[in-house]
Structure prediction request, 362 residues.
Amino acid sequence: MRDESLFMIDCHLDLAMNAIEWNRDLRKTVNEIRSRELGMTDKLDRAKGVVALPELRKGNIGLVVATQIARYVEAGSALPGWNSPEIAWGISQAQLAWYRAMEDHGEMVQITNLPELEKHLKLWFDTTVPNQNKPVGYILSLEGADSFVKLSYLEKAYAYGLRACGPAHYGPGRYAAGTGMTDGLTVAGKELVREMDNLNMILDVTHLTDKGFEEATAIFKGPVWASHHNCRKLVDHQRQLTDDQIRVLVERDAVIGGVFDTWMLCDNWVRGVDDPKERGINIEKVVDHFDHICQLAGNSLHIAIGSDLDGAYGKEQSPYDLEDIADLQSLSGILSRRGYSSEDIENIFYKNWLRFLRKAWA
Prediction:
């Protein structure tokens, strides 16, 4: 391990989206990627990315939940997306092909079951092997289910290693309404959630509406997590979890991944206009959300890291004291200063996600 840094799990990174749609070679360092993007203006976060495989190793982030993501949008939608479910499926398969290429290079390794998980952990906790010689483990998750052309595609995805799925993303969805909406699961969405249960997959409630959250948690009996979510009590937006929803998740022995996107760390963030430093948004703000969940739960067993860094934004919309994803290690000092024990910090860094996965895959 690097210095005295703790092993870490990040439960939400859009790695393949950055590779396929942003055309980023994540085998390069963050600074090399930024340098290549200088002068590019097609996206707000050009030359401002914070995530790459070398920085994951530098930050001792040896296991991630890595996504496929491809939203379908109807004609006239203000949201970006793909013009048919079949195209969205094709994009998701291009993303899968990138993960496979990273595996071929020894950069990453897919984790789909408990023996694979334990083998990977043994390697990452072996201090005689330098981190740069270790593959980053990834558990495959689908963010928004629009790319399932029909329900049978869920089984196709499970066969290639998909182990978690969030039915919704932003706006209307083929299986569930998402952020910014009020409707819940569609008829097909309810069938999807039942079939996920049959396959013992993990339900990700992130991006579900309040109605969708209630419906999904009532139907689904298996393991539930919120991969990247913060608290509505602190930042009043439908994208955040209410206290009642947090209590439901605690009762289900779920884990919530705290997210680092600044618009979920302050009220009324204006994308492309506001500046993290001017708004006073640092990593400490994320810990405020961690702390709120710990206070509701009465312990540190239900909060962890789901950073969503480089989730269609970069340094311009990240805490100002975060230069790249390796700086997640600074959470240790912040948590310690706020009274969290070494055991609490280990829970938040990796033990909560491990406990969840070991129980889900037992």
Summary: The radius of gyration is 19 Å.
